[in-house]
Amino acid sequence: MSTIFGSSIGRKLLMSLSGLFLVTFLIVHLSINLLLLVPDGGETFNIAANFMALPLIKYGLQPVLFGGFIIHIIYASILTLQNNKARGNAKYASGNNTKDVMWASKNMYVLGITVTAFLVVHIVDFFVPLQITHGAASVTYDGVEMHNTYALVNAALSEAWRVALYVVGSLGLTIHLTHGFWSAFQTLGFSNNIWRKRWTVIGIAFAWIIGLGFAAIAILQFAFYQ
Amino acid sequence: MENNISLTLKVWRQNGPKDKGRFETYKLDKVSTDSSFLEMMDILNEQLVNEGKEPVAFDHDCREGICGMCSLYINGRPHGPDDDVTTCQLHMRKFKDGETITIEPWRSAGFPVIKDLIVNRNAFDTIIAAGGYTSVSTGGVPDANAIPIPKVDADEAMDAASCIGCGACVATCKNGSAMLFVSAKVSHLALLPQGKVEAARRAKNMVAKMDELGFGNCTNTGACEVECPKGVSISNIARLNREFLKAKLAD
Ligand code: HEM
Ligand code: SF4
Ligand code: FES
């Protein structure tokens, strides 16, 4: 008997678990980003960001997070390739007129690529100066020296094009999650006729809270915190 | 006559599995709106035979929506523009006078074309043979009330059992996935006490066969449920995932 991950449902299990793991990461990330709105010149945000740079988190959790992204992206690519092959080369001349199918559900890979493109810019903007080159400026609170992460973020979000990019990235993620959230529970088998409706409502609400949350913070930073 | 319509048909013609295939255009006058889509195809074939041409090959059997033989991808939808019907139950009153109708075979790597509009759906039988049954010793028919079954379970099992194996779910799926079919076949047995005995083995073997035959990975688009002529629900897919993962984790 082949292993679980050699099967279609097993591959989907990896997609859903990595996806849900990334969802929890988004919740933590958005919570910290909200601190960008505390009007204290960035002290609260810097202290929280400094906490996230603790060795335990940096060397313990970050590799797990990267692993989550990598599994999700690799399996997304494998599944998409296999699915295109299963669809076959012959295309329907009369197209597809099936109604009531969510657009997001048919474009998860494209939406994922939008998220990946955004992720790359994000890593170059913040992750590299903060965690690799340590090129970011320092600030001291109560004798503790740390990166002035707030200044870095604030400066980045003073540029309109980057704010626009962040808004587009957040929307791509939102649409990805309007389908992804309930889909993950369907994949895990935690769904039936009643729960499918519930997960869909919860998922769409969650997706918009996350997406609009990230987008609004970027816009507010640009408009009112410069 | 107002209940007769004229049509232009763009029909897929393919001499055999290896042939490249092409569309042929035919004109039909005076098709009664009371006829079914397959009767319209019969009229077309009669016309072709009278012209000394080869008739269009298409699948059909019961013509009352229960066997699953009729297929046809009509104007962008399996079984055509009506909802919850097979092609044999599709009426010509769903089409307008002067309309052009494009008729294609199911297209999916798992269903290769045999000739014209006929595809090979043996893959479904192979999947059934991998576990879509209960191994019971034959004998007298037991009393219907010998094993009590909750009404909800019986209803859900019946709904799943209404799958006629037509393949519309695969035909419409962007991933060429057979999950709705397989989940219906696993569910109608898994819900009943008689089927529970072999449930784990059945889920594993049928999914393994489905994967082996090259059907795609379900991404939960739900298109299958929309196009299924029997309204089989994707909640069956969640049940299949559950049955399969449970069986694998128990190993
Ligand atoms: C923070 C980022 C992301 C989150 C929170 C996320 C979340 C999810 C979730 C919850 C699912 C549903 C899984 C399922 O149906 O079982 C999913 C599916 C999917 N994701 Fe992501 N994702 C993210 C980034 C990406 C990226 C970068 C890609 C890359 C190309 C991607 C590609 C896909 C694809 C193709 C699917 C559909 C796969 C399937 O249903 O089989 N995602 N995602
Ligand atoms: S699930 Fe519906 S569409 Fe799929 S084979 Fe069965 S009856 Fe046809
Ligand atoms: S011919 Fe039997 S279902 Fe259409």
What does this structure look like?
The complex is a heterodimer of chains A (226) and B (251). Chain A has 226 residues and is mainly alpha-helical. Chain A has one domain: 3 helical TM bundles of succinate and fumarate reductases (Up-down Bundle), CATH 1.20.1300.10. Chain A is 74% helix and 4% strand. Chain A has eight helices and two strands. Chain A has a two-stranded antiparallel ribbon with strand order 1-2. In chain A, α1 (8-34) packs parallel to α8. The model of chain A has no long low-confidence stretch (mean pLDDT 94). Chain B is built from nine helices and seven strands. Chain B has a five-stranded mixed β-sheet with strand order 2-1-5-3-4. Chain B has a two-stranded antiparallel sheet with strand order 6-7. Chain B folds into two domains: 4-114, Beta-grasp domain (Ubiquitin-like (UB roll), Roll); 122-250, Alpha-helical ferredoxin (Fumarate Reductase Iron-sulfur Protein, Chain B, domain 2, Orthogonal Bundle), CATH 1.10.1060. The interface between A and B is large, with 46 and 55 residues. The complex binds protoporphyrin IX containing FE, iron/sulfur cluster (SF4) and FE2/S2 (inorganic) cluster. The site of iron/sulfur cluster has 14 residues of chain B, from α4 and α5.
